[in-house]
Amino acid sequence: MNRALNWTGQALLYGGFALALGVFSRWPVYHPLPDDMGQIKVSFIHHGALLAECRPYTAEEQAKMAPNMRKAMKCERERSPVHIEVDIDGQNVLNQTAPPAGLSRDGASTLYHRFNLAAGDHRVAVRFKDGQSPAAKAYQLDETITLRPAQVLVIDFNPDKGGIVLQ
Q1: In Å, what is the CA distance from 14 to each residue of 23, 62, 85, 88, 119?
Q2: 94: burial class by Cβ within 10 Å (0-12, 13-18, 19+)?
Q3: CATH assignment of 32-49+79-166?
Q4: Which of 26, 39, 40, 119 is deepest in the core (most CB within 10 A)?
Q5: Domain locations along the chain
Q6: How far apart are CA 55 and CA 143, in angstroms?
Q7: Which are the contacts of 94, defined by CB distance < 8 A and separation ≥ 6?
Q8: 72, pLDDT greater than 90
Q9: What's the pTM?
């Protein structure tokens, strides 16, 4: 009798837990965006240009090094910050410089921002520069996009695909 009562109690507890889990997995309904809104995300991870070019070691510098540490070229590790500007419908919504990560400032620059917009047509202009020198290449994109309700459009940077990418 006592064993049957234990099994019944355990079945009721497990059933109650499963019911609570089922109810809270469906209710309340979560809507990340209102029905008439879309979202633009600016998200990238990119290594900026090297700040200094590689140069050959002088004979004096090589003489100071241990024989097993001698190399022909000296290459600095520090990278340039990455700068991005985003205009939506002629209004500047993002103007930010992302510094390189790491103690030696030799890591990737990262940036993430979200903008909620009304669904419809929008003019998006993006300017991206990954070097501080005047000779550094600047990437630009100027497009009209149609943002559907609940659509998430990602602005990314991929040099293999030509630079600024809208996905």
Answers
A1: 14, 73, 54, 52, 45
A2: middle
A3: 2.60.40
A4: 40
A5: 1-30, 32-49+79-166
A6: 41
A7: 42, 84, 85, 86, 113, 115
A8: no
A9: 0.75
